[in-house]
Design a protein that fits this description.
Layout: E1 13-18, E2 25-26, E3 40-41, H1 44-65, E4 68-70, E5 81-82, E6 87-88, H2 97-100, E7 101-104, E8 107-110, H3 126-135, E9 140-143, H4 165-172, E10 190-193, E11 196-200, H5 207-218, E12 223-227, E13 242-246, E14 254-258, H6 266-273, E15 278-282, E16 306-309, E17 312-316, H7 320-328, E18 332-336, E19 352-357
Parallel strand pairs: 1-4, 8-9, 11-12, 14-15, 17-18
Antiparallel strand pairs: 1-19, 2-3, 5-6, 7-8, 10-11, 13-14, 16-17
The chain binds gamma-amino-butanoic acid.
Length: about 375
C-alpha cells in the first residue's frame, strides 16, 4: 500500500496532514528568535477560533475533494523543555507541519528546525509517521541530524531591529542569526519542482543544511538550488515568497509567482531559471496589508494557498485579488475562512503537508 508519494505542490491531492492550534505558544527570546510580541500561550479564544477554521478545512478537503486528512497529536507545548545545551520555559506548537516535515517522493524527513522552541515539534507527528512506516513498505523515514542548538550555532550580534541599516547589510550579505556551525533547515524553505528542489538560505536554513540536503538526495537524481531574496528583511520560509501555480507542459511554460516586495536575487534567477520552462511573474497583492492582531507573518500569506490539483486551489476567502488571478488562469478556487489561523505561524500552505499526490517525479527543467 503506497501512502507517501508527493513530488510537487500541484498534482491531484489524496492525503494531507493539517496542523492543530492547541497549546500554541509565542516562544521566549532565544538566540534564534526575538519575539515581536509578548511571549507565552496564545489565548483560548484565539486557539478555539483557529481550531474552528482548521476543522472546517478538514471537512472541506474530506467532503469536497475526497482527500484523507490526518491530524497531529495535541502535545502540551506550554511545558518547559531541557536538553544538555539549553532549557526553555515553554515551546511552540504543531500548527505548521509544512515547517517541520519534508516530503520528497516516498520519503518524509523530520528536519532540524532552527529555533530551540521548535526542537521537539516533530514529536507531534510521531504516531502518524509510525503508522505510515508500518503500512507503507516503501516509505523512507529520515531524521536530519539533530543539531545541538548550543549558543555557538548563533550569531549573537545579529541586529534584530528590522528597520536599521545594519540589518539591511546583514541580509544583503545573506548573513543571519544562525551561523554555519551545524546543518540547519526548516522544511518550509524547500520548494519542490519534481527533480529540482529550490531552497532558500534564510533565518531558518543555513548553507550547511542546504548542502546536507543536496548530498542526501543526489544519488536519486535530484538537484538542489540555493536561492535568495535580498530585499526580504525577515526571510523565513519560501512559501509566501515563491510559489508554483501552473506546471510546465509541452505547449506552455509553467508559472511561478514571486512576491513583488521580495524579488529573486538577479544572479539566482539567471542561474536557476534562465532558459528554463518556468515563467516567473509577480504575485497579485494581498486583499489588505493589515494582518490580524498578534499575527507574526506578513500580509503575503495571500500567496500561501493549497493547490488540490492542477486546476483547483483552496484559498482564504477574503484574498480576492489572488482568487481573481487564479480563476483567470483557469484554476477554480474553493474559498474557506482562514484569517483566524494567520496568528498561528502561517496560512493554508504552512498549516498543511501533502503526503500523497497522484503523480510521478518529473524533470521540469530542460
Ligand atoms: N511561514 C511563512 C511566513 C512568511 C511571511 O511572513 O511572509
Amino acid at each position: 500500500m503506497t501512502i507517501v508519494n508527493s513530488h510537487n505542490d500541484w498534482d491531484p491531492l489524496e492525503e494531507i496532514i493539517i496542523g492543530v492550534s492547541d497549546f500554541w505558544c509565542v516562544p521566549n527570546e532565544e538566540p534564534g528568535f526575538k519575539p515581536p510580541q509578548r511571549s507565552g500561550k496564545r489565548s483560548d479564544e484565539h486557539i478555539d477560533k483557529a481550531a474552528i477554521q482548521m476543522d472546517n478545512l478538514e471537512r472541506v478537503l474530506t467532503s469536497q475533494c475526497n482527500v484523507t486528512v490526518r491530524r497531529p497529536e495535541k502535545i502540551d507545548f506550554t511545558q518547559p523543555a531541557k536538553t544538555p545545551f539549553f532549557s526553555l520555559a515553554h515551546q511552540h506548537g504543531a500548527s505548521c507541519p509544512r515547517d517541520t516535515l519534508l516530503v520528497i517522493g516516498n520519503e518524509i524527513m523530520e528536519t532540524t528546525m532552527s529555533r530551540r522552541a521548535r526542537y521537539f515539534e516533530s514529536m507531534a507527528y510521531r504516531k502518524i509517521m509510525n503508522d505510515y512506516f508500518e503500512k507503507d513498505k516503501e516509505m523512507l523515514w529520515t531524521m536530519v541530524p539533530k543539531p545541538t542548538m548550543a549558543d555557538a550555532m548563533y550569531n549573537v550580534d545579529f541586529p534584530w531591529d528590522i528597520n536599521c541599516q545594519e540589518r539591511k547589510q546583514w541580509i544583503r550579505n545573506y548573513k543571519y542569526q544562525i551561523n554555519e556551525t551545524e546543518p540547519l533547515f526548516d522544511a518550509a524553505e524547500v520548494l519542490r519542482l519534481g527533480k529540482d528542489l529550490i531552497v532558500q538560505q534564510s533565518t531558518t536554513a543555513n548553507k550547511k543544511g542546504i548542502e546536507w540536503l543536496r548530498r542526501h538526495v543526489k544519488s536519486r537524481g535530484y538537484r538542489v538550488h540555493e536561492i535568495h531574496f535580498p530585499d526580504d528583511l525577515y526571510p523565513i520560509h519560501i512559501d509566501s515568497t515563491l510559489a508554483p501555480l501552473v506546471p510546465p507542459t509541452k505547449e506552455r511554460k509553467g508559472i511561478l509567482v514571486n512576491c513583488p516586495e521580495r524579488p529573486i536575487a538577479k544572479e539566482d534567477k539567471e542561474r536557476i531559471f534562465e532558459g528554463s520552462n518556468w515563467e516567473i511573474i509577480d504575485a497579485p497583492p494581498p486583499n489588505t496589508m493589515t494582518v490580524p492582531d498578534l499575527c507574526m507573518s506578513s500580509a503575503w500569506l495571500s500567496m500561501n494557498m493549497l493547490l488540490v490539483g492542477p486546476d483547483r486551489a483552496v484559498v482564504e476567502e477574503t484574498e480576492i485579488p489572488t482568487i481573481n488571478f487564479l480563476e483567470s488562469l483557469g484554476i477554480k478556487c474553493i474559498r474557506v475562512p482562514y484569517r483566524d489561523c494567520y496568528r498561528f505561524g502561517g496560512g493554508l500552505h504552512c498549516h498543511t503537508l501533502d503526503v500523497r499526490r497522484r503523480g510521478e517525479c518529473y524533470n521540469y527543467f530542460p
